[in-house]
Amino acid sequence: xxxxxxxxxxxxxxxxxxxxxxxxxxxxxxxxxxxxxxxxxxxxxxxxxxxxxxxxxxxxxxxxxxxxxxxxxxxxxxxxxxxxxxxxxxxxxxxxxxxxxxxxxxxxxxxxxxxxxxxxxxxxxxxxxxxxxxxxxxxxxxxxxxxxxxxxxx
Length: 154
Prior knowledge:
By secondary structure, the protein is of the alpha+beta class. The chain has helices spanning 18-23, 54-69, 130-134, and strands at residues 26-31, 34-40, 81-92, 101-112, 115-125, 139-152. A hairpin with a 2-residue loop joins β4 and β5.
């Protein structure tokens, strides 16, 4: 089983996130309303056409969304709140294949009261060094838009 890489920034919601652990997600950066994560596509993440299963790309984008929505360290008085998805849309633009490295970049676009709007771009590259050579983390393969709602933690 792949493991979540904790060498980068740490976020408390990953402590018991077994799906993200199985996917082998690595956190590259975290800040208020922002998250960048990375994973490598493995054989068991592919569909019958030999390309990344749409559900894997969706789950990957959803993890970036969750990390951007929830502070790594809640502010005083906010410890009993969590931010969850109230709705999402995803557009698949190009396929990704086994061995490619996916990078998701999540950014808050708007926040009002308990609601927020986030855009997540998902890129695929043949190596983790793609950004160093091209200036981007690969080729854009999906656009994910998430709507969030902050609710009491149960």
